Amino acid sequence: MKRLVFFISLIILIGIINLYAFRDPFQSWLPKKVKKPEETFEKEEEPVSSEELRLEVEGMVWDTPHPQAIINGKIYNIGDKIQGGEIIDIDKRGVSILYKGRIFVFEVRR
After folding, report:
1. pTM here?
2. Which numeric CATH code is attached to 51-106?
3. Would you list the domain boundaries of the chain?
4. Stretch 59-68: mean pLDDT, rounded?
5. Residue 93 has what DSSP assignment?
């Protein structure tokens, strides 16, 4: 009886090993990604200039874990929205703002 249980267990174990040993090596085990449909319409780009953004950088604190800038008399952090744009970086060069798909860098007023 013990031999029969041993052989049945051995056959089951060999079957399981063969399932993984003979799988397709080029088949991914990761879930398949769903592709998003691409937009078919074309957007006309308007010319953008930094003059549209009437910003005056009055001061910055940039070498800290939470850099801040004083723009038009108000304090802003990275990620804040200002006049339809988003502040993406504050460093020693100035304040970088993403506005209508373009990046503008505003320096401190001297």
Report:
1. 0.55
2. 2.30.30.830
3. 51-106
4. 88
5. T
Task: Tell me the two tokens of residue 106.
Answer: 């505003």
Among residues 72, 50, 77, 81, which one has the least CA distance to residue 62? 77
β-strand 94-99 against 57-61: which pairing, if any? unpaired
Lowest mean pLDDT among 5-9, 37-41, 42-46, 63-67: 42-46
Please state, in angstroms and rounded to a whole number, the distance separating the CA atoms of residues 56 and 88.
Answer: 16
Q: What length is written for the chain?
A: 110
Q: Quote the tokens at residue 12.
A: 């089951």
If you search the block for the tokens 């952090």, which residue do you land on? 77
pLDDT at 46: 55
What is the rounded distance in angstroms from the CA atom of residue 13 to the CA atom of residue 53?
70
